[in-house]
Automatic annotation (TrEMBL):
<keyword id="KW-0853">WD repeat</keyword>
<dbReference type="InterPro" id="IPR036322">
    <property type="entry name" value="WD40_repeat_dom_sf"/>
</dbReference>
<protein>
    <submittedName>
        <fullName>WDR86 protein</fullName>
    </submittedName>
</protein>
<feature type="repeat" description="WD">
    <location>
        <begin position="193"/>
        <end position="234"/>
    </location>
</feature>
<feature type="repeat" description="WD">
    <location>
        <begin position="169"/>
        <end position="192"/>
    </location>
</feature>
<feature type="repeat" description="WD">
    <location>
        <begin position="11"/>
        <end position="43"/>
    </location>
</feature>
<feature type="repeat" description="WD">
    <location>
        <begin position="235"/>
        <end position="274"/>
    </location>
</feature>
<feature type="repeat" description="WD">
    <location>
        <begin position="315"/>
        <end position="347"/>
    </location>
</feature>
<dbReference type="InterPro" id="IPR019775">
    <property type="entry name" value="WD40_repeat_CS"/>
</dbReference>
<dbReference type="InterPro" id="IPR015943">
    <property type="entry name" value="WD40/YVTN_repeat-like_dom_sf"/>
</dbReference>
<dbReference type="Pfam" id="PF00400">
    <property type="entry name" value="WD40"/>
</dbReference>
<dbReference type="InterPro" id="IPR001680">
    <property type="entry name" value="WD40_rpt"/>
</dbReference>
<keyword id="KW-0677">Repeat</keyword>
<dbReference type="InterPro" id="IPR020472">
    <property type="entry name" value="WD40_PAC1"/>
</dbReference>
<feature type="repeat" description="WD">
    <location>
        <begin position="93"/>
        <end position="132"/>
    </location>
</feature>
<dbReference type="InterPro" id="IPR044715">
    <property type="entry name" value="WDR86-like"/>
</dbReference>
């Protein structure tokens, strides 16, 4: 059973709830976007606030951090780009006519999804809209991006001659119950994925395997072939909306309003584990070193052994829902609607888990060696014996 942990540090600089937390690719900085209309930049080395980005006229819904630039989107209908070193606003992207609730940065593109029912593509370096994706009947909640080079064979690419200029595709999930795939260069809808009967809240892409996973308020997760648009599997065991997804080594983790996380084998669709103990919806999750970390509407973060499902630790201290978590250098960062960023030391859990994994591997190795000797003996005497231990 898990024990309660106390935070190493509590950062209280924001004057409103923190809606999102982003970690830079080099792991040196964190960015928080808040209800107070500002974003703050934090160093992972000393946990101090080293930047305060002000300029939005309403609350920040989402943020994204690169090594040298930060991006924020807001209920003021705009997206802003910031210089990480100076805090200066480098660009304002205008065009949406309602709340911008999600952004995604890929290559030289900036993508955005809005309550105005559109997604848009912008040039990162210029305050210029490149493309508008119009076709959803309700707001666009979630985004994913990939290149057709990642999924199409050469002969299939030749069939898409009109899209030769750019092979980038944008995936959008909407409250209209659909997922759409768009050619970035033309704005043309390549696929509409039909099957969900509720809003699509989360997407996760596995381009090398040509698969897309979508979670919905209809309580299901669906797997799609992103080339053909075919629905491959439906995962149905949740009893509430599917809020967040994480894909690790062909294992899919899903967090739900039913207060559980479930682990599924992607290749078979089998549910192999359920992680309980949450007293409210699971709002965010992150896998790290054999441990599943979750954030919940009950204001607690939790750590589970990903294999056994055993609760290893509860992180208490927040007052309201935990909206986002990040992990770096065996520190857990949790951002909450209570306006605080809390930092927790998870070295002890990680160490224990590494020891456990080492023991398991050692036991498996001994079992394998024993099995080999046994098979050798059975072959000599001409017997074929099936054993329950997999020999």
């Amino acid at each position: 059973m898990g024990n309660s942990g106390s935070a190493v540090k509590v950062c209280t600089d924001h004057q409103g709830g923190i809606n999102w937390l982003s970690l830079s690719p080099d792991g040196q900085r964190l960015l928080t976007g808040s209800e107070d209309g500002t974003a703050r930049l934090w160093s992972t080395a000393d946990s101090q606030c080293h930047g305060h980005f002000q300029g939005h006229e309403s609350y920040i819904t989402f943020c994204h951090l690169e090594n040298e630039a930060a991006f924020t989107c807001s209920a003021d209908h705009t997206i802003r780009k910031w210089d990480v070193m100076t805090g200066q606003c480098l660009a304002i992207y205008r065009g949406h006519t309602s709340i911008v609730n999600r952004i995604l940065v890929a290559k030289d593109y900036l993508f955005s999804g809005s309550y105005d029912r559109t997604a848009r593509c912008w040039s990162v370096d210029k305050e210029k809209q490149i493309q508008e994706f119009r076709g959803h009947r309700n707001c666009v909640l979630t985004l994913a991006h990939y290149s057709s080079r990642d999924v199409l064979e050469e002969e299939e690419e030749e069939e898409e001659e009109e899209e030769k200029v750019s092979r980038d595709l944008l995936v959008t999930g909407s409250t209209d119950c659909t997922v759409k795939v768009w050619w970035v260069s033309s704005g043309r809808c390549y696929q509409t994925l039909l099957g969900h009967t509720g809003a699509v809240l989360c997407l996760i892409l596995d381009a090398p395997n040509r698969e897309l996973f979508s979670g919905s308020t209809d309580y299901t997760i669906r797997t799609w072939n992103i080339v053909t648009g075919e629905q491959l599997k439906v995962f149905k065991e949740h009893q509430g909306s599917v809020i967040c997804l994480e894909l690790v080594n062909r294992h899919l983790y899903s967090g739900s309003a039913d207060r559980t996380v479930k682990c599924w084998l992607v290749d078979t669709g089998e549910r192999i584990q359920t992680y309980k103990a949450h007293k409210h919806s699971v709002s965010t999750l992150k896998y790290h070193a054999g441990i599943l970390f979750t954030g919940s509407g009950d204001a607690c973060a939790r750590a589970f052994n990903s294999r056994s499902g055993v609760l290893q630790k509860i992180f208490r201290g927040h007052k309201f829902i935990i909206n986002c978590i990040q992990i770096h250098n065996e520190l857990l960062y949790t951002a909450s609607h209570d306006g605080t960023l809390r930092i927790w030391d998870i070295r002890g859990i990680c160490k224990r888990n590494k020891r456990r994994l080492k023991k398991e591997r050692s036991a498996q190795g001994r079992g394998s060696q024993k099995g080999s000797l046994s098979r050798l003996f059975n072959n000599k005497v001409g017997c074929m014996v099936q054993r329950e231990n997999g020999e």
